[in-house]
Amino acid sequence: MKIREVNVNRFIAKSKVFGVDFVINPYVGCPNACLYCYASFLRNLKGYKEEWGTFLDVKKTNYKLKKMSVEGKSYLMSSSTDCYNLYEEKYEITRNILKQLVNFKFSLRIETKNSLILRDIDLLKKMYDVKVIISLNTLNQEFSRGIESCSPIKSRLETIKKLAENKIKVIVAISPIFPFLTDYKEIILKTLDEATEYIFEFLNLKSTPVKKKVLKYINEKYPEYYLEYAKIYLFNDNTYFMNLKKEISLFCDKLHIKYTFK
Fold first, then answer.
1. Which of these, 105, 169, 230, 233, could form a disulfide with 128 (CB 3.0-4.6 Å)?
2. Per the structure, how many domains does the chain have?
């Protein structure tokens, strides 16, 4: 992993995410190295030579967040990196940002796949309005290990439980849903007592390089599903996801679960 410390003017940027005013990305790059990562386009956009998942820019700034510019707004941490990646334990960029925000009245969503967030429970419990989004797309550790390099499934489930025990609202993002491989019912039933709501996101392979990597992986590891993936991602047949969306909605409505599709 190539690590660079870079000076920036600020961490905050106007959001392109629906329903969020601003995003906070403490890092550029992401050691999670998810096979399916939509943010990998930033590598080319910003001119990085390294492969996505093999570099990390640690943002440093003297900029101090101001109450008047934060309060009453909605923020997402983070939109293109995992703010609790394994290097956060050393640099504490995310923790230092939270220390500035802890007394402000605003809405904050923190999205992560790593259990390091438990380190900051002391700050999260003081936040005015915070929700933590933990992403899971399988309970099969072997499958997870093949597509992402973040906290193991068991650790993420324990993280969800501990956050809920500390009265911190937890949203479980079943994301991305891999056709025929993600068992959304299994994930819901495993987390039902702790999650306040669920977000569902289907596997998006609009990026050609990402599409090639994922289809190659499926062909090598799960060849029995390759033709179905080809139908969806090479021939743009949306039937599978259209039917799945109806199925998920019926299941969640039956259990009176709060949910959204991303």
1. 105
2. 1
Rounded distance between C-alpha atoms, residue 30 and residue 33, angstroms: 6
Exposed, middle or buried by CB within 10 Å (0-12, 13-18, 19+), for 143? middle
Distances (CA, A) of 60 to 71, 98, 123: 23, 15, 21
What SS3 state is found at 152?
coil
Q: Is the pLDDT of residue 47 over 80?
A: no
Question: Do residues 199 and 173 make contact, with C-beta atoms less than 8 angstroms apart?
Answer: yes
CB of 261 closer than 8 Å to CB of 245:
yes
**Are the C-beta atoms of 113 and 156 separated by less than 8 Å?**
yes
Task: Please state, in angstroms and rounded to a whole number, the distance separating the CA atoms of residues 122 and 127.
Answer: 9
Report which of 237, 149, 158, 221 is spatially closest to residue 191, judged by C-alpha positions: 158
Q: Say what the pTM is.
A: 0.95
235-260 pLDDT per residue, tens: 999 999 999 999 999 999 999 999 99
Range of the domain at 22: 2-261
Give dist(CA 85, CA 82) in Å, integer: 5
Residue 167 has pLDDT above 90, yes or no: yes
The CATH number assigned to the domain holding 239 equals 3.20.20
Tell me the percentage of the chain whose pLDDT exceeds 90.
Answer: 84
| Residue at token pair 């329903």 | 19
Quick: pLDDT tens for 134-155.
999 999 999 999 999 999 999 9
